Amino acid sequence: xxxxxxxxxxxxxxxxxxxxxxx
Length: 23
Description:
78% of the residues lie in helices and 0% in strands. It has one helix spanning 5-22. The longest helix has 18 residues, at 5-22. It starts with a helix and ends with a helix. The model has no long low-confidence stretch (mean pLDDT 86). Keywords: Lipoprotein. This is Type VI secretion lipoprotein/VasD.
């Protein structure tokens, strides 16, 4: 299994946005 850098970065950004919405 291999991850695409752009998809991995997009998922990381989503996690950051979720933390901002939680706060």
